Amino acid sequence: MTGESMTKVAVIVGSLRRESINRRLAHALASLAQPKGLELVELRLDDLPLYNEDLWQSPPASVQRLKQEIKDADAVLFVTPEYNRSIPAVVKNVVDWASRPMVDSVWPGKRASIVGASPGAIGTAVAQSHLRSILTPLGIALLSRPEVYLSLKPDQLGEQGEVTDERLAKLLDRFLDAFAAWLERVKPA
Ligand code: FNR
After folding, report:
1. Rounded to an integer, what distance in angstroms lies between the CA atom of residue 124 and that of residue 51?
2. How many CB atoms lie within 10 A of CB 8?
3. 45, 80, 83: which to mutate for ligand 1, most atoms within 8 A of CB?
4. What is the pLDDT of residues 94-117, one digit of tens each?
5. Which atom of ligand 1 has the smallest separation from the CA of 24?
6. Is the distance from CB of 40 to CB of 84 less than 8 angstroms?
7. 99 alpha carbon to ligand 1 midpoint, in Å?
8. Sign of the alpha-carbon torsion through 91, 93, 97, 103
């Protein structure tokens, strides 16, 4: 598949730490997605300031870059941990910056999907539910199924996202097939 015929997906990883299992998951998904015509590109988030309305007087370069990258992408994939039964501040910060100024929000009509992993038993189910409830009013079209709640130990994915567990590989594959088919069906507003 050539670069031009690929569907570009901006990936928002909700953890800034180096050893993040969600980043490994994002890497795994990127490798599996390539042959399906999806190009997954992780966005840089660690240089974004905390949302501050005053900063719009002279918008930080990192914020302008973030908004442009989301605008340029065909779709967005959130890959996020759960913090204290909700989404990490990193994710909320991205959602907030990209939603302003209101007339220039990047979100209306954007297509998106959510996955997440934690070592805990519920695999980010509560965080994903919160994220759904804040994305929907922004006008984002969300893939409803399959839901991907992964209970993962750090060694279940290699550093570059290598997947050795066959069941996990199949599950990720199924998700990506559904995401790719949905993106074909649901065109941007
Ligand atoms: C957590 N963790 C966590 N896990 C979970 O399943 N439900 C939760 O509510 C929380 N809460 C929580 C709060 C805070 C502040 C931290 C730092 C962690 C554990 C979390 O899932 C674990 O640290 C993951 O490894 C984080 O994801 P990354 O960084 O590995 O991608």
Report:
1. 24
2. 14
3. 83
4. 999 999 999 999 999 999 999 999
5. 31
6. no
7. 26
8. positive
Cα of 84 to ligand 1 centre, how many Å? Answer: 7
Can you tell me which atom of ligand 1 is nearest the CA of 14?
31
What token pair was written down for 31? 């490798």
State mean pLDDT over 59-72: 98
Q: Where are the beta strands (DSSP E) in 3-61?
A: 7-13, 38-42
Question: Helix (H, G, I), strand (E, B), or coil: what is residue 71?
Answer: helix
Taking the CA of residue 80 as reference, the ligand 1 atom at the shortest distance is: 31
Contact partners, residue 51, CB within 8 Å, separation at least 6? 93, 96, 97
> Radius of gyration (Cα) for the chain, nearest Å?
16
- What is the CA(17)–ligand 1 centre distance, in A? 11
If you ran DSSP here, which 8-state letter would residue 12 be given?
E
β-pair partners for 67: none
Would the pTM of this model clear 0.90, i.e. be above it? yes
Residue 56 alpha carbon to ligand 1 centre in Å = 32
* Protein residue closest via CA to atom 2 of ligand 1: 83
Residue 134, number of CB atoms within 10 A of its CB: 16
pLDDT digits (tens, 9 = 90+) for 1-22: 556 689 999 999 999 999 999 9
